[in-house]
Amino acid sequence: MLIDFKIKQNPKLFIKDPEGSEMGKQIVATAIGLLQEIGYEQFTFKKLAFKIPTTEATIYRYFENKHKLLIYLIDIYWSYIHFQIVFNLNNVSNPKEKIKKIIDLLVWEDNSESFLSELDQKGLFYIAIAEGSKTYLSKDVDNLNKDAFFKPYKDICEMIEMVFKEYNSNYNYCKSLASTLVETSHSQYFFMHHLPRLSDFSKNKNPKELEVFLENLVFGALNN
Amino acid sequence: MLIDFKIKQNPKLFIKDPEGSEMGKQIVATAIGLLQEIGYEQFTFKKLAFKIPTTEATIYRYFENKHKLLIYLIDIYWSYIHFQIVFNLNNVSNPKEKIKKIIDLLVWEDNSESFLSELDQKGLFYIAIAEGSKTYLSKDVDNLNKDAFFKPYKDICEMIEMVFKEYNSNYNYCKSLASTLVETSHSQYFFMHHLPRLSDFSKNKNPKELEVFLENLVFGALNN
DNA sequence: TCTTTTGTGATAGTATTACTACGAACAAAA
DNA sequence: TTTTGTTCGTAGTAATACTATCACAAAAGA
Fold first, then answer.
1. Span B182-188, average pLDDT
2. Is the shortest CB-to-strand distance from B58 to strand D under 7 Å?
3. From CA A34, how far away is CA B14, in angstroms rounded?
4. CA atoms B199, B205, B207, B212: torsion sign
5. N or C: where does chain A have the smaller number of CB atoms within 10 Å of the terminal CB?
6. Do the Cβ atoms of B108 and B129 come closer than 8 Å?
7. Is residue A183 pLDDT above 50, yes or no?
8. CA B27, CA B19: separation in Å to the nearest integer?
9. How far is B98 from chain A (nearest CA, A)?
10. Residue B154 C-alpha, separation from nearest chain A C-alpha, in angstroms
11. How far is B224 from chain A (nearest CA, A)?
């Protein structure tokens, strides 16, 4: 199944909607590839323009700067994961099973049922892990937050929070546990690939082991 | 008590040892202030030079670039916290008490017994929370890691790992739990101040509540 | 005492990055 | 045919990142 997965993005994130033209779509698709290839610090609009090919000025007509473009991509990523989780939780009623499924989807490497092109999916996964926190780790975070640029991230955390509440309504730290789960799923994935002494899964690099750790962590907290 | 707290830093981090001259010390001290003030992205050697005051070229004689300077500061921070923990765990034998003490020191806002000047201490705390992960979230992470630039961070995680092992030798994820604890203590602190809907402590902003959450998280996992 | 060496910081650059003003091309509407 | 608007490209500027080289002073040697 490959349907056209379109997310209505916060219009303040772009100057001109990239979904509205071929050039815009090219910019987004190529940006995913280039960001993955050279990383956020080395990424420039000039290099992106060269790869498309177009000119720097054209890209500036779509996005104010590379930070806004990064937020745009990360927002797509979280909206997509959010949708995936809602879709997959459709017929699950047991909260414990729901949590397990959520963890499975957060740690995905190869997700068979995809609504994005494979290139975009793997690229966005990588970018979310390696560059995601750069969206909010900025002096400008409070202003960006006022413009609701982190809404997709908050929405997915809130949804997970609700499932935790459903599992144990007496647990007082559902918000923090939800954001910790999301953050940890990414940071541990990064550590196991790049800073092996910070994770127990660096030898096999098996995402399933990471999932067991996360389940243990979440249920340990919720069952206390 | 205020002793001269000096850490032997990885010499590959600098071109010329900043501890070896007045100018070097000024660069480090002023960098802490400026980073805290304007954040890593806006931080430039030119602005730093203006504040000292000296010239850009002088700073380049000490540090190759601002990323190396950031790693230098973050390494000081973790070495300092490491020392603090070892110092405070000196007379504690009960592993449970040790873990509680570790969590308390990781979340410190105002630490009474300090071996750094107050300005440096608060500054480094802020920088570690808001900019710390930028040290390794880089395409260059594997090369930086080969030069052991993340050793102080790994050392503190390893020490915490050993305490976890001491508490429960059957728990299989001590490395990951240790790095998760360290990361979460920072990310939740950031969230409660800037992205309040991602944390349960945003209302009171009381670090003690965060500590309770972290204790619950760690003991929940270890007691499973 | 007089050189020479060494360490230090300043001057004055270049290349790259981030961003903008303006104009050409083209198509749809009048 | 003219007008209007949309889209993209040309050609800049300002700031940032980094370097080659010079000037000076203190220390070391003759």
1. 98
2. no
3. 31
4. negative
5. N
6. no
7. yes
8. 10
9. 19
10. 7
11. 6
**What mean pLDDT do residues A2-22 have?**
81
Contact (CB, 8 A) for A197 and B156? no
Quickly list DSSP for B58-81.
HHHHH-SSHHHHHHHHHHHHHHHH
Measured distance CA(A104)–CA(A115) in Å, rounded? 17
pLDDT digits (tens, 9 = 90+) for B2-43: 455 667 889 899 999 998 888 899 999 999 999 999 999 999
| Residue A36, amino acid | Q
Give the number of A-B residue pairs with CB atoms closer than 8 Å: 146
Kindly determine whether residue B195 and residue A150, on different chains, have CB atoms separated by under 8 Å: yes
- Distance (Å, whole) CA B99 – CA B126: 23
Residues B177, B179, B181, B186, Cα dihedral to 10°: -160
Give whole-number Cα distances, A4 to A1, A56, B199, in Å. Answer: 10, 28, 34
Phi, psi of B201 (to 5 degrees): -115, 10
Identify all chain A residues contacting B213, using CB atoms and an 8 Å cutoff: 173, 176-177
CA of B111 to C1' of D14 (A): 44
A31's CB contacts (< 8 A; 6+ apart) are A43, A48, A69, A73
C-beta atoms of A217 and B216 within 8 A? no
- Categorize the per-residue pLDDT at A8 as very low, low, confident or very high, splitting at 50, 70 and 90: confident
A142 closest CB neighbour out of B188, B194, B213: B194
For residue A145, the chain B residues in CB contact (below 8 A) are 194-195
Chain A positions in Cβ-Cβ contact with residue B142 (cut-off 8 Å): 194
Task: Take residue A207 and report the two structure tokens written for it.
Answer: 């995402």
Which nucleotides in chain C lie less than 7 Å from some protein C-beta? 8-13, 16-22
Contacts of B222 in chain A (CB under 8 A): 220
Give tens-digit pLDDT for B136-154.
999 999 999 999 999 999 9
Identify the CA nearest to A211 among candidates A105, A79, A81: A105
Q: pTM of whole model > 0.85?
A: yes
Residue B132: pLDDT over 50: yes
| Nearby residues of B161 by Cβ (< 8 Å), 6 or more positions away | B174, B175, B177, B178
* Residue B41: CA count within 13 A, CB half-sphere: 13
